[in-house]
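Subject: Pyrroline-5-carboxylate reductase structure
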Amino acid sequence: MTDVSVIGCGNMGSALITGLSKAGKHTLTACDLDPDALEAVAEYSSTTSDPDVAAESDVVIIAVKPDIVGSVIDDLDLSADQTLVTLAAGVSTDALEDRTDATVVRIMPNLAAETANMAAAVTQHSVTDDVRELLDDVGEFVEIDEQQMDIATAVNGSGPAFVFYLLNAMKEAGVNGGLDEDEARTLAAQTFKGAAETVLQSEESIEDLIDAVCSPKGTTIEGMNVLWDSDADQAVIDAVGAAENRSRELADEFEHE
């Protein structure tokens, strides 16, 4: 079993702890100064408010805000045989490697780690087998060049919020048509889940999958005509672009702090 600690038990840190605990293959330690945050994950891992205790693990995951990740790492005494995993948007491995003797791996996960449905990106130049195993236990991941991390941050890191927005719109359409809110929520959420799983398992293009649902003169083609005539796709592209630009801004802020 791999000894793993997570420093910072906010939304993302707690999601990783929960997901990894369900795999049953790791010894987990949660570290946070907030007793309420520790209480929330106490059933999934051991807890501590002492970073020195967390620093004893084979893999140390830093799940704190980008503006404090440097100071947190500076206070950790890690050795060359340990792995430091950072989740901080806009903070490169180069910016952290001089602060620690550990191998630095940068990942961009998302909250679906809690249910083992996470999409994550990881720096291919520094990823270790231990980190690959951790990521595999909580979802799917891709290994990318670090220069692509800003766009990955936008697509899979920020992406769940964009999907929730679209899912909520479908739910509201169902409610407006007379469905009970819980019924509409279930139908919309399961539809997104099923469509995503179809994309992952199919070798067909997304465009071909759309065509497969659109029968001539049927209901779906009528709805798709509305979407094709709108700027909905461009709005999503712009949202991803805005998140990507913010990731770059965070990198500049960290480098000039």
